[in-house]
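Predict the 3D structure for this chain.
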Amino acid sequence: MAEMVKNWQLGREMEYAFPEARPQRQFAAVFNLNRCIGCQTCTMACKSTWTFSEGQEYMWWNNVESKPYGGYPKNWDVKLLSMLGPQPWNGRTYEGKTIFEARDPAKQTVTGMVALGYLPSDEEWRHPNLYEDASRGHNPRGESLPEHQHWGFYLPRICNHCTYPACLAACPRKAIYKRQEDGIVLIDQARCRGYRKCMEACPYKKPMYRGTTGTSEKCIGCYPRIEQGQATRCIATCIGKIRLFGWVDDPESPVHYLVHKAKVALPLYPQFGTEPNVYYIPPRWVSRAYLTQMFGPGVEEAIETYTHPDKELLGVLQLFGATDRIIHRYRIEDEEAVGFDAAGNEVVRTAIWEPVQVRPENRHNIT
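Done. Predicted structure below.
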């Protein structure tokens, strides 16, 4: 029997396997897609830390896809969107079916709940960089804002550590759990038997099967670092400074500000219904219709706010990549943005406005 739970991203209640039970605080991250250069530093930092062993060759807990054609596993989002079919929004309220509400009752597990999904083939896992740098086309006359006719962008992805994880709902072994202290979703390796129901149900395809152990594994949110007050490896090593970690339900967190106050950071495919906790600042040159399908109906407002930031937003954006410590609280001063750790200690101070260097007239304007 499904429970009715509140999903704030959908603006309504929805069906889920278990009663609503939110953690003490929720792991969350914001990725600014206007800054990502597709360098894959995050990908290799994660790979060299967590998935470098035998049987993990095709495990990329962090990957960076080139949209609109790239995806790992191949076509993961296009396939599920096609299975779900066209679904309506009414303003900010989602009136269509989530993957839980569109499930096939004939495929229920012993938990009594399964989500609409599919199990990718081995071939679909083989090419994490397929279509890398492939855009929608090329315009020899150039492009101009607000929307490019031909476009492409990089989409970095990790596990979303969802509030309503489909992987957790589908696991017949109850091997998947959500940590109360930080909302990180983990797989108990002692209980897992590798049935891959989590892989089938997860709409983002972030649980992955390891043949050498016969179990599924996934991004662990770098919880040993989180427990020490440090941001995840993918966030700390990002050279484009596109990532910021924080607690989405803490009003003092910069992540809470970006998601709930400025509303420039949006969830990935909120219509799936999992209430994902990784958020994205949409790229402002991309087709609005495409972005709305991907991030929901807040795209226009998010891009407008990002394009014309006030002082507070500009200051928070400068905190991205400014420290490898978790910023629990921030303060905007006259010329600087300041970040503080859980104990209230200052961990970073950065200028809000970057200096502009003008070459003297007797120097050529070259590098």
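The chain has ten helices and 17 strands.
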